[in-house]
Amino acid sequence: MRTAFRRLIGLVCFLVLWEVIVRLGVLPAAVVPPPSTVLVRFAGLFSDARFVPDAVSTVLSWFIALALAVTVAVPLGVLLGSIRWLRLSLSPIVEFLRPLPAVALIPLVILLLGSGAQTKIALAAFASVWPVLFNTIYAMGEIDRQLLETVRALRTPPLRRLFTVLLPSIAPFTLTGVRLSASISLVVLVSTEYLSGGTIGVGQFVYLWGTSAGRMDMVLAGVVFIGLVGYLVNQALLSAQRRWIGWAATGGAV
User: Fold this and answer.
1) Are 183 and 230 in contact (CB under 8 A)?
2) Which domains does the chain have, with CATH numbers?
3) CA 74 and chain centroid, separation
4) Residues 131-190: tens digit of each pLDDT
5) CA distances (Å), 43 to each of 14, 56, 59, 98, 195, in order?
6) Number of neighbouring beta carbons within 10 Å of residue 149
């Protein structure tokens, strides 16, 4: 409760400062509306028939992209973390792909997949694979060697070894990677909606209100929605991490 209260105090101070700066004319209200206006517009978003489909599309696509990234990254990370020669063989490809900006691939992916939801899901999944993958590989290297030797000496079947030793051991690092990937995935998803066109989503909602109508209050209301969703999902993942793997220190490597 004390931590939540301190966070609330910080948020209130930020909003008050923002309101005062705009009201004093330091920032033009037409470009940066005060939070009192933005919050009113935000509250009205959910009664807007145009916004609700955009919000559903963005959130659903986000979860699909994140699920795809985890489905690919965790098994691949376990494999690469277990087989050194395979990790070394694939490292040039991985290191080439990792720094590629996902939004730069928009034209290529549109040609391959079209301009629908599959494009933003594919790009968001591509961008969010790397934190989970590298955290999983790092975690595999941190598993206690004596523990691995013990399960080998006991001739534990590979599948049982995976679910009783490997996955529980790498869980703190992998979940940290998932939290990082959730933020990256949301950024890339909304950016793709904004830049690519031809698809619904909060990114397109922000683009249309900003370029066609010049309504910065609606733009910032959409931004508040994106930030709030991202914050809530991050807090949910953090709570799950503390509850389910509280026996291990939260850690990770990027």
Assistant:
1) yes
2) 36-244 (1.10.3720.10)
3) 16
4) 999 999 998 888 877 777 777 777 777 777 777 778 888 888 999 999 999 999 999 999
5) 19, 16, 18, 38, 26
6) 10
